[in-house]
Fold:
Amino acid sequence: MSKEKEENKELSNSLIETISSSDLTNIGKDILEIGVDRILADGLLKEIPVINVATGFWKTGIAIRDYRFITKLLHFLNESSRLTLKQREEIINKLEDDKYQSEAGEKLISIIDNLETKSKAKLIGKAICLFGNEIISRDEFWRISFIIEKLPTSDINALKNWKETDLNKVEHTRKHLYMSVGLGWFVLNMSSTGFVWTERLCEIISEHLI
Structure:
């Protein structure tokens, strides 16, 4: 295994450890307002495994592109802290089938790293809370995470009014984006109304995330 893969593996394992067994109560509004520079310089939150590992990588310029990753990670963990420790222990075991359990941390790290803003990281945190509270299924969590990662924030926010919106009349580029992430589909039968919403996913986003 290459050094980079080993480091990514260490980061993903530390995220799993953080979610399933760490006290996240120290992450709050006050800490988030301090800023990553201060957190890194003062060694704050070093008791949280994934922050400790990510900080070490950042200081040596390895694996983490820049400290924006840590900012997004903190906002994700802050939202996740709304779950009890018992709930967080349970969701790790449910995020993947047993055969692929080790990939859960890698998938989460990849998603968080690819997010364009900290506000999206908060949405992923909210989504994992929905999963932990059994409001959405495991598959729905991964699908929602994919949607949040791929869609521009403005297009996500526009879903607030999806029920009053005819997908056939949505601006072409936005409609194409919705179709590409599974939020819409085209009905091909005699009673076709053309483009229609994927209602369950739209409901999760509009009623619970935005």
User: Anything to note?
Assistant: The first strand starts at residue 184 and ends at 186. The mean pLDDT is 88.
